[in-house]
Amino acid sequence: MLRLHTFTKQTQHLLRQHFSTAPFGHLTPDQVALKDASRAYFMNTLNPLFMDMDDTDVFPDQVWPALGEQGYMGLTIPPKYGGAGLDYLSAGLIAEEMHYANASLGISHSAHDNLCANNIYLNGTEEQRSKYLPNLCKGTAIGALGMSEPGAGSDAIGSMAMRAVKDGDRYILNGTKMWITNGPVADVILLYAKTNPEQNTQGVSAFLIETKNLPGFSVGKKQNKMGFRGSPQSELIFEDCIVHRKDLLGQENQGVKIMMSGLDLERCWVAVGTTGVAERALDLALVYAKERTQFQQPICNFQLIQDKLARMYTALTSAQLLCYKALEACNHVERGESGRGEIHKLSASAFMAACYAVKVCCDEGVQIFGGMGYMRDMEINALYRTIKTSEIAGGSMEIRKLIVAKELLEHGIHAHHGRS
């Protein structure tokens, strides 16, 4: 497809080649090498797909098995089940690089790998792990998380209308999920429904749903999104849909524990992906500022442009440091400790920082591109359209602020050191 603007061939080559990542002193040489190798592969294979996905809003089915073959699926899943067996920080570094190369595939991967597969590993029985994880790790199955609903926003649990009525050794599901990433293509869905509505937050259960040939299950309207196009999102409709007791993930009426324990990990994972988008926007702006000339010189010579670049870089690297700290903290969280305390505060603040960084980088990036940045078929424009959801999904920005403030007021700044 002909673009309204193309960089020079030399600049195109620079943007597609492997950039060596910054030598962060707190990352091990192996982790830096992991980032480098991931970026090289993703820029070669995933970045060329990004703008066509944005144009057509079509998910490239062939990518998932290819990522599985390369070992980029099941990043935190032990090799016993076909995964890579990485710690959360190392896995997050890969997620960051995937978002850098292709934000749409990055967000679909996060839903598949972190929200679905990782939660199955953490909370599933041995039978459930052995059944679902190998195919999710191979990329021959696609995972999704079914939590959001049309009438449920920040009060996702209290406003949940999905019901699972127990009938002997089975449950009958009725309700609709909304804004489900990977919904139209998912083979496995981690679904939340109320099994005891009178108990409110203590009456929610989690289920593992196999979508193929499941009576009573259907995919509703595919959502036409502003950004992350090509990462499919839709309604999921359940009408007298029968699932069995063996499909229950964890204990009945204990789904909120699974949900909350996974939410901090999710926030850290998606936050570091958000910094990948921010870094891509900064790199695009840097190259354009060097190439674009006005008044007989590159615009990067002007101090107002340098001011933008400096603020973009500072916001980005600050967010990266906090995200890496939060991911490292996830490695040391004991089962059942998520959803409160230091990791709760740290994950929310990391996501806040990442959202601020990506807004600065994408907004100023479009400004540096000027009129060309306003054109829909520019990559910086596609990135700009993705960023708003980072303030809404995974607990809105307002909720994150409340979490951080609440933990500060209750435990102080250095709760993990035992100081007030």
Give an overview of the whole structure.
The chain is of the alpha+beta class and about 425 residues long. It has 3 domains: about 10-140, Acyl-CoA dehydrogenase/oxidase, N-terminal domain (Butyryl-Coa Dehydrogenase, subunit A, domain 1); about 145-250, Butyryl-CoA Dehydrogenase, subunit A, domain 2 (Beta Barrel); about 255-415, Butyryl-CoA Dehydrogenase, subunit A, domain 3 (Up-down Bundle). It is built from 12 helices and 10 strands. The strands form 3 sheets. The protein has a 4-stranded mixed β-sheet with strand order 1-4-5-8. A 4-stranded antiparallel β-sheet has the order 2-3-7-6, covered by helices on one side. A hairpin with a 2-residue loop joins strand 2 and strand 3 (about 170-180). The longest helix is centred in the middle third of the chain and has 37 residues, at about 255-290. Residues about 1-25 have low confidence and may be disordered.
Quaternary status? single chain
Compute the separation of the termini in Å.
59 Å
Q: Write the CATH architecture name of the largest domain.
A: Up-down Bundle
CATH superfamily of the largest domain: Butyryl-CoA Dehydrogenase, subunit A, domain 3
> Which fold name fills CATH's third level, the topology of the largest domain?
Butyryl-CoA Dehydrogenase, subunit A, domain 3
Structural class: alpha+beta
Task: Round the mean pLDDT to the nearest integer and report it.
Answer: 87
Summarize the structure.
This protein has about 425 residues and is α+β, with helices and mostly antiparallel strands.
Task: Provide the fold topology.
Elements: H1 9-16, H2 29-45, H3 47-56, H4 63-69, H5 88-101, H6 103-123, H7 126-138, E1 143-146, E2 163-167, E3 170-181, E4 188-194, E5 204-210, E6 217-222, E7 233-244, E8 248-249, H8 255-291, E9 293-294, E10 297-298, H9 303-330, H10 341-369, H11 379-386, H12 397-411
Parallel strand pairs: 1-4
Antiparallel strand pairs: 2-3, 3-7, 4-5, 5-8, 6-7, 9-10
Helix pairs in contact: 2-5, 5-6, 5-8, 5-9, 6-7, 6-8, 8-9, 8-10, 8-11, 9-10, 10-11, 10-12
